[in-house]
Amino acid sequence: MSHKISFGTDGWRGIIAKDFTFDNVRLVARAVAAYINELGLGKRGLVVGRDNRFLAEEFAEAVAEELTGQGIPVFLCCGATPTPVTAYAIKLYQAAGAVMLTASHNPPPYNGFKFIPEYAGPALPHITKKIEENIAKLQAGEPCDFYQLEPAEGRYGRLVEQPKKESCTEHHPFGAYIEHISSIINLEEIGKVGLKVVIDPMYGAGIGYLEHILGEAGVQIEVFHNTRDPLFGGTLPEPTGQSLEELRQRVKSGGAQLGLALDGDADRFGIIDSNGEYITPNQFLPLLYYHLLTVKGWRGPVARTVATTHLLDRMAAKYGQQVFESAVGFKYIGQNMLEKGCILGGEESGGLSIKGHIPEKDGILAGLLAAEMVAHHGKSLSQLLQQVYAEFGQLYSERLDIHTTPEQKEAILKQLKDFAPSKLAGQPVRDKITMDGTKLILADGAWVLIRPSGTEPLFRIYVEANSREQKAELQQEIKEILQLN
């Protein structure tokens, strides 16, 4: 029986050797080839990038072989390449898109297949739906239309080589990406103030990027977990407060101004402040928006997901700007950045991009922006946060992941269809949004979002409140109403 292959929030992911097999990877590559050739874009070629996971090189070569077999030249990035760099290479080579082989921050047994269209941001649902339809046809033994069976010239058509000597650097997107990112970040200002930064690329594809860019600017660098390890040191390559304890200790003991971490494919960020405090994405995004508005003098709307802090909304209101709220998934953020002219797009799970960059989340960019902010203001991020809170008020955000049984999940989903309490934690419910889950906004601006997992018996409860006490009260009340323990 054929395994059903579907694209989730950020591509198709599966356990290596069980679901993520060479046969399935080749199948998906052929489905992508059919999609590209149907658009008439095949001759522009596709970029193929990959992370540091087990058999990454071999999977990338299998994809390249399938694409070239369908007449599509390939820009194969040999060596681990971050997702944002692979996406940027689309623009660099004027390609029709990219395939990125990564499971991002998932556990070591997983790998994934992500398609990035020609606009260099995550594929929207109508695109992945078409690829899924092609996969189903191929699994059923039906031919896909618009196959181009004349192979591309050369082994992979076009090869983008990993630099083994300095003289080869120009043949890899590394150099061009660094040049581009250096035009966005004020590296001269960063270099002048004598920063010390500790970097944890978490054994992932981002090894070499932050340390090279900041080191060249004159920053004192300490880096660790910067060798390839497909097991990620026995943990998840996910830069959250729980996973960055060693980075926290190194920042404090070494007297560094910042600790910067990247996830497995370097599209998400983690930040430790000089005092050892973990700066959450819901804290960093308002800091960054404020920096863009007040220091860079930019004006424009902000894009955020339904689960991301409303402190961005308070700032936008003061500066007469719009906020575009979307479902969870950076593909929707990227769409708003492309279509609405947003100067910042971000999500509470650690993805962001800004005007002038690609509409793909980029942890390298985020880390550099953090360094720019500390350098410019001469203050820690915690001190800058206090400034922002003094002007706009402080909000307290937290996500709880609550496991249930499949039967409980089904019962709660039925209950949520008509879930419309008039009050929560003593506050009237002002609005209900069902764009992605069930979101209830209270009269005082606090809110609750209940989102079921699409793949397991799990609910994610997001709460943002005006005090820690209100946050705890809202969490408890929601758990009691829905009988979530």
What does this structure look like?
Belongs to the phosphohexose mutase family. The protein has 485 residues and is an alpha/beta fold. The chain folds into 4 domains: 165 residues, Alpha-D-Glucose-1,6-Bisphosphate, Chain A, domain 3, CATH 3.40.120; 85 residues, Alpha-D-Glucose-1,6-Bisphosphate, Chain A, domain 3 (3-Layer(aba) Sandwich); 82 residues, Alpha-D-Glucose-1,6-Bisphosphate, subunit A, domain 3 (Alpha-D-Glucose-1,6-Bisphosphate, Chain A, domain 3); 87 residues, 2-Layer Sandwich (TATA-Binding Protein), CATH 3.30.310. Helices cover 37% and strands 21% of the residues. The chain has 15 helices and 21 strands. The strands form 4 sheets. Strands 1-5-4-2-3-6 form a 6-stranded mixed sheet, with helices on both faces. Strands 16-21-20-19-18-17 form a 6-stranded antiparallel sheet, with helices on one face. The chain has a 5-stranded mixed sheet with strand order 8-7-9-10-11, sandwiched between helices. A hairpin with a 6-residue loop joins β9 and β10. It is globular, with a radius of gyration of 23 Å.
